[in-house]
Specification:
single chain; alpha+beta; 2 helices
């Protein structure tokens, strides 16, 4: 964890704290644009390398703070999946499950332990 930035005089020590990537380029381009509006970019995942970078990236994104105002529409697809119609900016995470070949072994050991409540050690 870094601390005492204000005491540091060698600026080169800070070069590796936040790495350059597409997200920061998009953010700089956004602020350089006259009359820039809200900021949203799909390259925020480029900052997944560290907690510090992830936190800063999410802070700059224009995400809805009050969820009661936004109603997103989720509808199942004809195939496996869902169609999302967003009412405002959002980050949507998805998980994919893929089938794969597995070499199963036949050396499985099963242990079954149980406790009967009506038996006590004091009997």
């Amino acid at each position: 964890m870094e601390n005492h930035y204000y005491k540091e005089t060698d600026i080169d020590k800070f070069g590796q704290l936040i790495k350059r990537n597409q997200f920061w380029c998009d953010l700089a381009r956004h602020f350089a644009t006259p009359n820039h509006g809200r900021f949203m970019t799909s390259s925020f995942t480029a900052n997944a390398g560290s907690d510090r970078e992830s936190f800063l990236a999410v802070c700059f994104l224009d995400l809805q703070q009050d969820a009661s105002e936004a109603v997103h529409d989720f509808k199942p697809n004809d195939t496996v999946g869902v169609t999302v119609k967003a009412a405002c900016n959002l980050i949507l995470f998805r998980r994919s499950i893929k089938e794969c070949a597995v070499a199963l072994k036949s050396d499985v050991m099963v242990i079954h332990r149980y406790h009967e409540e009506h038996h006590s050690s004091e009997e």
